[in-house]
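Q: Structure tokens for this one, please.
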Amino acid sequence: MLETERLLLRQFTAEDAPAVQELASARSIAAGTLSIPHPYPEGAAAEWIASHGADDTHIEFAIVLRDGDVVIGATGLGLAREHERAELGYWIGEPYWGHGYATEAGRALVHYGFEHLGLNRIQAHHYTTNPASGRVLQKIGMTHEGTHRQLFLKWSEYKDVEAYSILRSEFE
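A: Here is the predicted structure, written as tokens:
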């Protein structure tokens, strides 16, 4: 478990499925992510949570408000251990946007990646249609590396993606 001023980043439990199901069902969440579908199928949250820990290439955390133990989103690292690198991902439920929670969780995960996992590089991407995510990545110390044009196909539309990273030497 990771703790910040306002958040706990902890493993998901089966009891978190209803909150994840409700938050991830919003079209706005699916629109900003590659892997969350819309409509979000009934039972998908429980299935997703049950899949955690199936391999050692992904570390997933529930983003939880310390006051009230409310799940507000998810974050994680997709690991490429052979390269001492990870891909940071996150989403915050729409009712919790604009409060700095993604930045707070992102900082904690970057610290965890460098200090506890021994990573050399943490990278992240966001759709160009989601500039708020770019501001989060900048606030946690990442450097903009460029634009990948039409990198992904989402909902029959090619999506441009902005690439960011932070190196261990920059973190220290």
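A few notes: Residues 2-122 form a domain with the Aminopeptidase fold (CATH 3.40.630.30). The radius of gyration is 15 Å.
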